[in-house]
Amino acid sequence: MASENAQTAAQGGLETLGARDAALLESYSAVHMNVFGTPLRVMDHAKGARIWDVDGNEYLDFLAGIAVNSLGYGHPAWIKALTEQASKVAHTSNYFATVPQITLAGKLIEKAGAPEGSLVYFGNSGAEGNEAAIKFAKLHGNTMENNTGKPARVLALTHGFHGRTLGALSVTWKPTIREQFGPLVPGAEFVESGNIDALRAAFAACDERGPVAAIIMELIQGEAGVLPVGPEFVRAARQLCDEYGSMLIIDEVQTGIGRTGEWFAFQREDLSGGVTPDAITFAKGVAGGFPMGGLITFGKRNSSLFTPGSHGSTFAGNPLGCACGVATLDTIESEGLIANAEERGAQLRDALEHCGNPLFASVRGRGLLDAIVLKHPCAHAAANWALEHGLIVNPVAPGALRMAPPLIITAQDVDQAVEVLAAIPDDLPDD
Ligand SMILES: *Cc1c(COP(=O)(O)O)cnc(C)c1O
C-alpha cells in the first residue's frame, strides 16, 4: 500500500502535493497571517464523508472540519434549509427575531433536558459561547457573599481548552498559547484535572483568594488529545459547587450535538457521573458547518442573571445559522445519528485495538470523538502518511491522533479508515 511518494511525504515534506495545490498554497501564504501554518491542501468540493482537493485527490474525512460537519458535506436537508432561509431573510439585527432562531433555542433546551426556565444565548463560535459563560460566572460572582474584597474566581482545569479570545484564553490551560497574551482576565485559576484534593483546596481557599463563582470544564478534553476528566472528578465538582454556591459550567463545544453518543456529553453517566450542570456551551457541530455557538443556562435563577444590555453580538442568532442548526438537529434525530455515533465509535475503537499496528499503544474516546495513543510521538508524520493515503485524521498532540468523523459515516467508511490506519508505519520520525 505504501508508495515511494507516500514514504517521502510521511517524513514531513509536502513532496507529493499536486501542482495546483502547491501553487495555491504559495499564494495563500503570501496573503494570510501565519497563525495556522501552511494548510495541508487546498480543498475544492465535498460530498458525504469525502472531500476532494484542487488536484482531484479524494480524502475520507475523519475530522469533519474539527468535529463541525455533523451531517457530512452537502446533506440535502442542510442545503435546503440554508438556501430556503437565504432566499427568505439572511440577517436581521437583534431588534428583530426570526422563526428558526426560536425553533432552534427550543430544540436545544429540549435535547439538553434542561429544566423549566432554562434559556439560550446564541453567539457565532465556541469562544463566544465561553465568553458568555464567563460573563455569566461574573454576574453570579457579584451576587455571592464576599468578605475578601477580591473578585470572585473562575476555576478551570489543566489541559482544558475554551477558545482564543481573551476571556476564553484566560481559562485555557496550554501555557504556549496563553502566556504571551498576559495579563489576562483576573481571577482565573487552574486546578489539576482529575485531582479531587486539589479541587477541594481551590474551593476552600475562598477566605484568602475570593469566592469561586464557577468552574468551567470539558468532560472530554478534546484539544488535549481526547482525555476524559472522569466521572468521580465531575461529581466532586458538582458537590463542591453545591456546597460553596458556585456554578458548574460544562464546555460542550466539541462534545455536544451527538458527537459522544448522546446529545450532550453530560448526559453520559460514564463521563459526567450523572450530574446536572448550571450551564453548558455549544458550538462546533450545532449547525453542521455554519458558524454558530452559544450558552444554555439551566433553570430560572441561573437564567435571570443576564438582563437587557448585559450581553450581545451583531450576528447573534443569525437566521442562516439557526436554520442550519434546526436542519442539523432534525436530521440527527430522523436518521438515528446519535445511535450511529455510538455504534460506529465502538466499531472504530474495537477495530483499531485489534488491527495489530505496533505503533498503537491504546485507543480512547466515546462515540465519534476518539484518539489513538501512539507509542512514540510521531503524530504529525502519521497524520501526513494517512493523508497521503486518502484519510484525514488529526495530530492533536505529539502522541495522539484524533478522529471526529461526521456522524453519518457508515460501517464501510470505518473499515476503510481502519485499513489505512493499520498500515501506518511504526518507524516514522517524531514531531
Ligand atoms: C473548539 C473549542 C472551543 C473554541 O471554539 P471556536 O469556535 O474555535 O472559538 C472551545 N471549547 C472547546 C472544548 C473546543 O473544542
Automatic annotation (TrEMBL):
A Pfam family the protein falls into: Aminotran_3
Protein's pathway: Amino-acid biosynthesis; L-arginine biosynthesis; N(2)-acetyl-L-ornithine from L-glutamate: step 4/4
The organism's place on the tree of life at top rank: Bacteria
GO molecular function list: identical protein binding; N2-acetyl-L-ornithine:2-oxoglutarate 5-aminotransferase activity; pyridoxal phosphate binding
InterPro entries: AcOrn/SuccOrn_fam, Aminotrans_3, Aminotrans_3_PPA_site, Class-III_PLP-dep_AT, PyrdxlP-dep_Trfase, PyrdxlP-dep_Trfase_major, PyrdxlP-dep_Trfase_small
Keyword annotations: Amino-acid biosynthesis, Aminotransferase, Arginine biosynthesis, Cytoplasm, Pyridoxal phosphate, Transferase
Cytoplasm among keywords: yes
Subunit details: Homodimer.
Protein name: Acetylornithine aminotransferase
Organism, scientific name: Pseudoscardovia radai
Highest classification ranks of the organism: Bacteria, Bacillati, Actinomycetota, Actinomycetes, Bifidobacteriales
Gene (name only): argD
